Amino acid sequence: MDVDGGGGSSSRFSTTIHITALDGIVNVNSLFTLAVFIGLAWQPTDPSNSLVTDPNCVAGQNIAENLICFHVYSFSSFLFSSLVALSLKQAIRIAKTSCDTRRLSIFTFDLCHVNRNALRVGYLISAAGSVCGCGFLMMALVNVAQIKLGTLACGSSHTYGAVVPLLIFVPLGLLIYVFFVLFAFSR
């Protein structure tokens, strides 16, 4: 990645902000991965975990199976995203061996030749993994709500009260995240 980025110009840009952004991706993915592991440690078929009193509204085995599947999909997506981000970070650090260190006032920063196109594609791939992980985690939480509060088919106001905000705010947050990732990609 120590080739200059596209267009043949020898443009240089600070890599410190890129390393910080990649650290942020890895940290957020780590928090979500912790949530996935906590979810996997929970035994969904234990009747003491459910608040459902109507036997017709008890979640079936397929919902519990989907819960586990979505947790595993979420974990694999977050792990993929983190590994891509860590790989980019390592590539930037390797490229820093040929960096110029500049001092501006009280700040010291490194300027390196980094392939911008490769960096952008790596960011997009890492962001796509995070978005998929969030989507799968959201679907797992919908299944948790159905197991704890009753299935959506029963029309329980408690289940809908838990699921509707989840289905509004998470996609909205992901939409904002994707917008800013694409905005950063175009710069």
From TrEMBL:
Name the UniProt key words of this record, in alphabetical order.
Membrane, Transmembrane, Transmembrane helix
Keyword flag Membrane: yes
Q: Where are the transmembrane segments?
A: 21-43, 63-86, 121-142, 162-185
- Which domain of life does the UniProt lineage start with? Eukaryota
Q: Please verify whether the record's keywords include Transmembrane helix.
A: yes
Enumerate the PANTHER family for this protein.
MATERNAL EFFECT EMBRYO ARREST PROTEIN, OS07G0240400 PROTEIN
State the name under which the record lists this protein.
Answer: Maternal effect embryo arrest 60
Which species is this UniProt entry from? Centaurea solstitialis (yellow star-thistle)
